[in-house]
Design brief:
By secondary structure, the protein is mainly α. It has helices at 5-20, 25-34, 39-51, 55-68, 71-88, 93-106.
Length: 107
Amino acid sequence: DPANSEAKLGLAQAELLQRVQGMDPQQVRKDAAEKPADAEAQIAAADLDLVGGHVEDAFGRLIETVQRTAGDDRDAVRRRLLELFEVVGTDDPRVVGARRALARALF
């Protein structure tokens, strides 16, 4: 049910956990550090950040990546950031602030 916020949150969390399963955290972080403009590397690191409870780091990483990228890469980063907003919960103050920062980055 798309209108069920609890179901939507549960699905977003399950998808996140599925994405990070099997990742090598050290390699993901190394790749992200070495390739700041690599959208996929930054997305993977942001997923790990969020699973580790580092919400602001995950959001900040993706907002900075939106600023450094263009085209399809930028859109992929933006979409993942919106997915992570769902995982945290759209009413969370960190999401509200990150939405503003994303808007500034896009325009």
